[in-house]
Design brief:
The protein is 77% helix and 0% strand. The chain is globular and about 70 Å long. It is built from 24 helices and no strands. The protein is an all-alpha fold and 500 residues long. Among the domains are: 68 residues, no CATH class; 246 residues, no CATH class.
Length: 500
């Protein structure tokens, strides 16, 4: 009986994850307390960061919330951080939590209009290069004024719509039939091969768009949360922020768009896959069928969702309210105007965002460990001991590397606070402070495209329900981001040094 219960516990632990993965997580949990006691918080803290990144890298094996959460709970239990510090980190990032809860659900209720618009874009633009540029540039422009997570939520909603339409037909069903688009058993050749190519096609578009959110997010005061923080500490207005960052952000934007074209032309790193002819034909049929069958009520739903989407853009551009509250407003307006009143229909909209929201709070616990164990202090002290170009270049690189493995808002908070303290103490001049503030902003925004944990939008994409459908793993995302990481980081570093 004892062995039966033991076997059941082993089987239940982390569910259907591979045995080797379960043993690895257990090994982490076993070795962390001795490391903390014998080697100290600094070593144990970096070990925890590496372990948490491992759970993210294995997201397709097991959703990171459970293994990452166990590691975070253990860190609190053995004293690497405290519940109060974790709560403070979550409270500091409460606007992001609100955004995830309400904005992602709000975008869900705009899906009819989004699918209508992007289907025309997908079918209308036959050149993959131009289509990729359109996704990258649109992601950049929107992210300069909207939150990158909001833009990513829009793109994910559209991609899931496209995928589900094709998968349903490829499985031998009609457009309106009930279907599980995660089940490939009914997809047979030659459509199975087309499905594989369609996945690659969607992966490339999504990665271009995700990089676009970083290209636009770095340019303005409202583009990313850390931009607002840095601008507030530096005392820069919206216009001054754009002008000061432009010598770095605009060359990076140009190089980013050029990288998009080159990757599609050369078909490197998983890019350049064309939309299969069978998929295009199904999309054209779907668009024609929807246009023919759309009654006045259906047309009115799209019009109403379009009006709500326009309100969303204006509300975020003029900052009428906190982003999460704008998302709640979108939910209220879009459901009230389109007849969605059942609780079950409302609840389904929150399924995508809430697991990621919980994972993000676990991530804040890891950030709390970074904060309490002072993991970044040696780098900050070394940078401030330098001067001139060396200090500026190292500041950009240090923020970039640390933002690849940690929360870029936290990294920016640590470094802008340290630089401001140096300014107040007379260690650096105001001119040097302004240059360093630009280096911190661009450093936390640009090189962080290297990993999903570097950009919240990338992490959201990786842990979304779409990622397993299109086979977008952590490793594949890092590989596809690599050319962008190299070209954008080198451009940003060079432009930062030339701005001095």
């Amino acid at each position: 009986m004892r062995s039966t219960y033991g076997s059941a516990l082993a089987a239940n632990f982390l569910g259907y994850s591979p045995v080797w993965y379960k043993r690895t997580i257990l090994a982490f949990l076993v070795v962390n307390p001795p490391i903390f006691l014998l080697a100290g918080g600094f070593v144990a803290g970096w070990a925890l960061v590496a372990e948490f990144i491992f759970t993210l890298a294995m997201a397709l094996r097991c959703y990171p919330l459970q293994p990452g959460g166990l590691l975070a709970l253990e860190a609190v239990a053995i004293g690497m951080t405290s519940p109060e510090t974790v709560y403070q980190e979550a409270l500091t990032n409460f606007p992001v939590i609100l955004l995830l809860i309400f904005m992602v659900a709000g975008i869900y209720f705009l899906r009819d209009m989004l699918l209508f618009v992007f289907a025309k874009l997908l079918v209308g633009i036959r050149s993959k290069v131009w289509l990729s540029l359109a996704f990258t540039f649109t992601g950049a422009v929107l992210s300069a004024f909207l939150d990158a997570l909001t833009v990513t939520a829009v793109i994910i909603t559209v991609a899931v719509g496209f995928y589900s339409v094709y998968h349903r037909v490829a499985s031998g069903k009609g457009f309106d039939d009930q279907h599980d688009h995660a089940d490939d058993t009914l997809v047979h050749d030659p459509r199975r091969g087309d499905l594989t190519r369609f996945r690659a096609f969607l992966r490339s578009l999504l990665m271009h768009a995700a990089v676009g959110t970083a290209l636009g997010g770095v340019t303005t005061l409202v583009g990313e949360p850390q931009n607002l923080l840095i601008g507030h500490v530096a005392g820069w207005s919206f216009g001054e922020f754009f002008v000061r960052v432009a010598p770095v952000s605009l060359p990076v934007l140009v190089v980013g768009l050029a990288t998009c074209v080159v990757l599609e032309k050369l078909k490197w790193f998983g890019y350049g896959v064309e939309l299969p002819a069978s998929v295009r034909e199904i999309m054209e049929r779907y668009e024609l069928r929807e246009a023919t069958a759309r009654d006045p009520a259906g047309r009115m739903r799209i019009i109403a969702q379009g009006v709500v989407a326009l309100f969303l853009v204006l509300a975020l551009a003029f900052h009428l309210a906190e982003v999460g509250l704008v998302g709640l407003t979108v939910i209220i307006l879009s459901t009230a105007l389109t007849g969605v009143t059942e609780e079950s229909n409302l609840g389904h909209a929150f399924e995508e965002a809430l697991p990621f929201t919980a994972l993000l709070v676990v991530f804040f616990a890891v950030v709390a460990v970074i904060h309490e164990q002072h993991l970044f202090d040696p780098v900050l002290n070394a940078v401030l001991a330098m001067d001139g170009h060396a200090q500026l270049g190292t500041m950009f690189a240090a923020n970039g590397v640390l933002s690849m493995i940690s929360d870029n808002v936290f990294v920016a908070t640590v470094y802008i606070s340290g630089v401001k303290a140096a300014l107040d103490a007379g260690v650096i001049s105001l001119a040097q402070f302004n240059h360093l503030a630009v280096a911190i902003n661009t450093g936390t925004n640009i090189p962080s495209v290297a990993t999903p944990n570097g950009q919240a939008a990338f992490l959201f994409l990786l842990t979304s329900g779409l990622a397993p459908l299109i086979r977008l793993s952590y490793g594949r995302m890092v590989w596809m981001a690599l050319p962008y990481t190299v070209t954008l980081s080198l451009t940003g570093l060079g432009a930062t040094l030339l701005s001095l």
